[in-house]
Amino acid sequence: MSIETELKFRLIGYNNITKTMKHGYLRKKTIDDTLELEDIEDEGQVLDNLTLEVEVEIIKMTGSKKEKMRTFDESQKDVSDVVLVVQDTQFYVSEMYLASQSTYLKTLFLGGFSESKKSEIALTGIDADEFQHFLEVLYGEFSIDGDFEIFFDDF
C-alpha cells in the first residue's frame, strides 16, 4: 500500500512564537525523521511549554481497496435482468429494484429511452468502485465510510 500525504507541522512555544513546516512523503516516515529539537531550540523556544499541531492531508492512496460487501458479478445472472457496465466492470442487477430506488435509473430503464430495451447498458463518467459502493447501499449493505464521495447529483 502506498499513501501520498502532505504533513503540516505547527509548533507553538510559550511566547506564541510559531514555526510551521510542510512536508510531503511517498514512503513511511516518522515525526522523528521530520522534526529536530534543535530546530525549536534555535528559535529560542522553551521545550517544557510547547504545543505541536499536525495536519495530515491524504493526497492519494494506492493498493488499498475496500472489501466488497455484495457481489454483482456473473454469479448474480440468474436473479438479474440487466447488466450495467461501468469502466469495463459488469454489474448484474435488477432493473425494477433499482428503478424503485433511483429516479435517474427509473428514467433510464422505464422512460422510453433506447437503453430501456437493452440487456446491457454502459454508464460513463462513473468510477466502478464508487458505483459498487452505491449499489451496495441501495441493496441494503452498510457500505459508506468516511472515504465515500457522492458522485451522482441526479441520484
From TrEMBL:
Residues 80-139 form the BTB domain. SUPFAM superfamilies: POZ domain. It holds the Pfam family BTB. CDD domains: BTB_POZ_ZBTB_KLHL-like (cd18186). It comes from Caenorhabditis briggsae. This is BTB domain-containing protein. It comes from the Eukaryota. PROSITE patterns: BTB.
